[in-house]
Protein: E3 ubiquitin- ligase NRDP1
Amino acid sequence: MEDDEQGYDVNRFVGEVREDLLCSVCQDVPKDPRLCQNKDHIFCLAHISRHLHENSHTCPVCRDPLTPETLRRPTGFLKNYLEDLKIKCDHHDRGCPDVVRLEDLQRHVDQCGFEPVMCGNEGCGTEVNKSDKENHENFFCQFRIVKCRDCKNSKARENGIKASQDEIKASQAGMKASQDELKACQDEIKASQDEIKASQDEIKASQDELKASQDEIKASQDESK
Structure:
């Protein structure tokens, strides 16, 4: 969709659009068109109003004197030509296939089923076509509220979702506790392994000392002979 002040993009129109009837500022089909006082130069109302307010009281094309009060609305052939132009709906990109007269565009857009609207279910926030809103809210939205078949409790689905979420949180907490316990066991095993290795090192050192003593005794015995 165009900016509210921008003219209508020429690519939205079916058929050729006369270039001499495009807005002299934005070069699009003029929105709320106005003409300069003397020479029929055409503009979007928003664009020519801004020019007259910010720049000077002259036509930006011919430089003839021009004020907001002396701007003219199209009449006759020009008025009919612009109103009869065939334009695609504002919501064409969302799937609307309709092509309407420019004069009827706003009336069509106000009623178009492809207008984007927000789902009304709390917590959803999904943007859908206006014509799909009811079906989305009642049948497809994951945040929809449905009545329990047995207890008629309209909060049944909401409570079920919350219970499932609580179960997931509890499971995650249990998994974390198990992981912490496993890590603690692994740390204990490593500590035990370190103690065993230290004991083995002590035993080996004692064995080395004993062997050294035995070697000394044997050497002394050999000398005595």
In short: The longest helix spans residues 156-224. The chain has a mean pLDDT of 87. The chain has three domains: 10-113, 115-146, 150-216.
